[in-house]
Amino acid sequence: MSILNLSNFLEVYLVIAALLFGIGIFGMLYQRTMIGMLISSELILAAASLNFMAFSRFLASDPTTGQIFTLFIMGIAAAEAAIALSIIIAVYRNYKSIDTEDVASLQG
Questions:
Q1: With contact defined as beta carbons under 8 Å apart, do 53 and 67 qualify?
Q2: Running DSSP on this structure, what letter comes out for residue 33?
Q3: What string of DSSP letters covers 47-94?
């Protein structure tokens, strides 16, 4: 089995998506800054998109379904990144830090 032939197996895509998801969860749990958490959440959304694309390519009768779901996920990821960055900028202006422990006084 050569490297070029690996793209014809669903399991390869699922393993890559699981690795992305695992790295994203690890980053969400162990990052201390909000930017690191934002990047980790983007990795989780990329893993979900890869799963949708892989399943639509190998198992669906209509492959456009997975592509449409992936486009929705990309739109949600872009909106989430824009909103999160604006919140991070506002927090930095008030606290002069983006460390999550420094903004613990925001807890309601």
A1: yes
A2: B
A3: HHHHHHHHHHHHT-SSTHHHHHHHHHHHHHHHHHHHHHHHHHHHHHHH
Extract the tokens encoding 76. 């949600």
Model pLDDT, residue 2:
63
Q: Are 99 and 37 in contact (CB under 8 A)?
A: no
Average pLDDT over residues 30-59: 89
Nearest in space to 56 (alpha carbons), one of 48, 45, 64: 64
Q: Average of pLDDT values for 6-31?
A: 90
CATH T-level assignment (fold) for domain 4-95: Helix Hairpins (1.10.287)
Q: Which amino acid is at 64?
A: T
Question: Residue type for 106, please?
Answer: L
Distance CA 108, CA 103 (A): 12
Q: Distance between CA 41 and CA 6 in Å, rounded?
A: 28
3-class state of residue 2 by DSSP: coil
Query: Shortest CA distance to 70 belongs to which of 81, 54, 82?
Result: 54
